[in-house]
Amino acid sequence: MDMWSPWHGCRKISAGCQNCYVYARDASVGKDASIISRTKSFDLPLKRKRDGSFTIPSGSRLFTCGTTDFFLQEADDWRKEAWRIMYLRPDVVFTIVTKRPHRFYESLPKDYGPGYSHIHFYCTVEDQSAAESRLPLFLNLPIPYKGINCEPLLGPVDLTPALKNGGIRKVSVGGESGPHGRPLHYEWVVDVKRQCDACFTPFHFKQTGTHFKKDGKCYTIPRKLQMLQAQKAGLDT
Q1: 33, 40, 32: which is closest to 10 by C-alpha?
Q2: Backbone dihedral region of 123: left (phi > 0), alpha (psi from -120 to 50 degrees) or beta?
Q3: pTM to 2 decimals?
Q4: Comparing C-alpha atoms, which of 145, 118, 144, 120 is closest to residue 59?
Q5: What is the pLDDT of residues 111-147, one digit of tens each?
Q6: Residue 169: which pLDDT band, with cuts at 50, 70 and 90?
């Protein structure tokens, strides 16, 4: 198990990010992305096998909210329970990717203190506007592990001011999937890697997206090959 999604669906994805992907992804499995609800696997990290051991073993890495945002306002009634579940599994690394760092403080549990070291937060940055509006706030939050997720990357972006701060542990880049996905340009990816290298920040090229432009050519890449093609680029550090 490599994904734990407390909530399914997302109604408030801003233009220019994952809106098309979220709706297409939900539609592919017969879900209405306008409906926000808890998944059946909400408490999966606390489930146990017959022998008493956890279904999700110690040392696992789980991603929350695969097609939505952990800090979505409509999920406020459920978030307290989600925090409790993660608090009770300090032996599991939970990854939260969000484009809503402005909702961080109003969404915290009372015992958060300096932060939970086993929860890794990534701020979504799809273009330069997002970098300038979200990262200054994100960098000042009490989070032990901070990363940047440029997925989907929709244009060239300068992350240097955030990387020079020294608080970013990793940067991940990817394209937009689906037949209507906007293209990812290889030179944008290489430039982000260059910035990371200059600041000694680990870099991960996660996937190409459906439409990938390189050396003046546009390639249409099936979803099952997108991660493999990114890996073949040999850009990870």
Answers
A1: 33
A2: beta
A3: 0.85
A4: 118
A5: 999 999 999 999 999 999 999 999 999 999 999 999 9
A6: very high
Burial bucket for residue 68 (CB in 10 Å: 0-12, 13-18, 19+): buried
Q: How far apart are CA 217 and CA 39, in angstroms?
A: 41
Q: Which candidate, 163, 225, 212, places its Cα nearest to that of 185?
A: 212
Residue type present at position 160? T
